Amino acid sequence: MHDACDRPRRARMAEQNRPAPSSCDCFVALPPATASRAVIFGKNSDRPRDEVQEVVYLPAATYARGVKLKCTYIEVEQAERTHAVILSRPAWLWGAEMGANEHGVCIGNEGVWTKEPVGEEEALLGMDLVRLGLERGSSAHEALQAITALLERYGQGGSCKEESTPFVYHNTFLLADRSEAWVLETAGRYWAAQRIREGTRNISNQLSIGTDITAEHAGLRRHAQSQGWWSGDGEFSFSKVFSLTHQPVRMEAAKARFCAGKELLQRHAGRITVETIMDILRDKASGICVDSEGFRTTGSMVSILPQDPALPCVHFFTATPDPSRSVFKPFIFVANVTPVLKAMSPSFGDKDPVQKVPRFQSRVDRRHELYQAHQAALGLMETSQEQGQKLQQTMQDLERQGLEAMKEILAGGITLDPEELADLLFDCVDTEIKFYK
């Protein structure tokens, strides 16, 4: 919660010395905190160490009324029209950890545990809700409305890891578009949301919405009273009412990381750029960039959303673990986007262990070509200091070239033709693999 960041720095540092948490962080900066008239969004996806994350583009589509949609575990009603999306997702599931759509909407999620019990019954994963929100929302607020409607109807639940031992959590979300951002926090089918119009905001694995609630589940306060969590008197703080009295270790560990992220954003307020958010996502001292025995940052994303609708939104993805040793590659929505097969994992169809009940009784190799090349490069970095430094420099040069090209496009200095933009992410991934080899 926000007031936790007001404690003495020494106490927070003591929390940072605990074992690395299995968790994520998500950030947004809006004018006047940004250096330009743009909203900047960023997220690290911290997942099981050996999990593969892929980057997938899905075009807009139309469907007949009444069609069913199979998500990771359950079916829901399909929308009659879905927006084009770019997703960074664990390769075994349907949803996504983070992504963007053609209208400049970005969404990321984090796991939380609240007084509302989590159940192992399969429903929608928070990651399914990320994708559903992107496919159905032409603005951050519209995406929020889509997510909350689905949450209330279908609930959230089911294992969030590709393992036979269930790992279940509820979710918080950060949604952003060209003009505003929303924090959405959930407890079972209940939720509260906060609109962010300016400045900075970050979320981690804890509830952070206090009394500043912009929208909420119609029965939220009545439910809290019925459970004896709130007397009904005085102000209603979502985080105070729904947070567990004794937090799980991963949520306790997230407090220091949340505060560190908040401080990093505030430190650069008024001059935050895409590079600023990339640097924050690469910050290992704070624990925001995780590389532990069990969990690590398996994928990262940064987006710049200009407030001028004539300018394109630019989305950067790593598609590989550890952003401090990965390349952020740009993507722009245009017609006829070239599929980036080298950043997509193989498909196993009905033979996939995720599709069989009981689930997760075996494992398959989900590594895509970029992931394999990157892992070989990391091995070289660790075994040969000289070659590793050269490779790291090459990676930095590749990223810098992409950033400079995007800056010129956003400044109106250069114009790429539609075919070049359609191949942008494809060409960047292909170039990166060639350098690794």
TrEMBL record:
GO BP annotations listed: proteolysis
Which Gene3D superfamilies has this protein been placed in? Penicillin V Acylase, Chain A (3.60.60.10)
What are this entry's molecular-function GO terms?
Answer: cysteine-type exopeptidase activity; dipeptidase activity
- Coiled-coil regions listed: 381-408
Keywords on record: Coiled coil
List, as start-end ranges, the regions of compositional bias called Basic and acidic residues. Answer: 1-15
Signal peptide (residue range): none
A Pfam family the protein falls into: Peptidase_C69
Q: Where does the source fall among the domains of life?
A: Eukaryota
Q: Which residues does the annotated region (Disordered) include?
A: 1-21
Q: Which family does it belong to?
A: Belongs to the peptidase C69 family. Secernin subfamily.
Q: What is this protein called?
A: Secernin-2
- Species the sequence originates in: Chelonia mydas
